[in-house]
Amino acid sequence: MKLSNVFAETVERTRNAKIQDDYIDFNIPVTSQRNPDTYVLIIANQHYDTPLLPEVPYATNDGYSMREYFTRALGVPQRQVKLLNDASKATIEDEGVHWLTDLAKAVAVHKGDETSPVANIIIYYAGLGFTDLDGKAYLVPNGINTEKIPSLNMSGKKCPRKDNTIQDITVQEISLADYDITLSSKETSLMTEQCISLDALCASLAGKNVPVRNLTLILDASFDGNNRDGNPAVRPERKDAKKKNRKANLRSDAVVLLAADFNNTAYVFDEREHGFLTYFLLKEVKLQRDRIFSMPYEDILTTVERKVSKESALQNRWQELSGIAGGKYKDGDWKKLKVKN
């Protein structure tokens, strides 16, 4: 065998080993393809400045990795990918959502009275989720004002433990894994006023004034009252045992991929330091490389769902992906969408 052939085979084996490794944060593939019509907002809320709202494990890591994959592996120009860390509601709305709506209007093609949308919008979120008494889903921003929410206010309060005992707590002594924060109906209303509902987020990108070709939301967050590590976070007090199942009021061409449905916990893959959904989604992009551009959502998500279910079950953290789509896709047509439309 010629030396040149041996060298070529060695290079190929090394390349394949790098692609197949289990670490998505290294050897990220770089595509030569361009994805100029895609605009991405990434929100990674790991650290909350309210003491009784827990830190969300690996959310920051998820956000950085998503940004690297969108710009390097998926060909989205760097200036069209915005990452917001530990963002407040005002920051998310002003620097994130308004940024997207302005871009959607700026790049649309105007022909007389008709507007032809160009922008494919993707919003990714890792952080705390919350549902109200009606089962409506919210993203929890940083900067929650707890002055009028006693259950989340540390000053001179007692906190109920999961074992139903009451104990004085301080910021220094608190172990959030021991506490289950339950908000009264009034407190829930005060909480949701400061959060971002999934309905409102989709509505802000809806209508003739915001010409978007497709809107995809990827939510690697728990909405069942638990954190991504399986420990309790915050939930509304429900007098009935059953949670209300409710679908978001999506714009017709919106697709939402959930790490778990609103009644179940979305976990993290501690060994890989990512949420299960984020890890296996980016792992699939890494494995497929440029083939990912020709794959419909259905093929990508079928593989990701299978791997998430298997690994989470092995870790005794069963998790099953969920998804909802707007009226345009009620027949499942959203599954035919691609990363680059």
Task: Give a brief rundown of this model.
By secondary structure, the protein is of the alpha/beta class. Helix content is 28%, strand content 21%. Strands 1, 2, 5, 6, 10, 11, 13 and 16 form an eight-stranded mixed β-sheet that branches. It has a two-stranded antiparallel ribbon with strand order 3-4. The protein has a two-stranded antiparallel ribbon with strand order 7-8.
Residues in β-strands, percent = 15-25%
Q: Poorly predicted ranges (pLDDT <50, ≥5 residues)? A: 10-19, 169-177
Radius of gyration: 21 Å
Give the tally of β-strands.
16
Individual helix count: 7
What is the end-to-end distance? 45 Å
Mean pLDDT: 85
The main β sheet shows up as:
8 strands, mixed
Report the order of strands and helices.
Answer: HEHEHEEEEEEEHEHEEEEEHHE
Classify the secondary structure makeup into a structural class: alpha/beta
* Helix share bin: 25-40%
General shape: globular
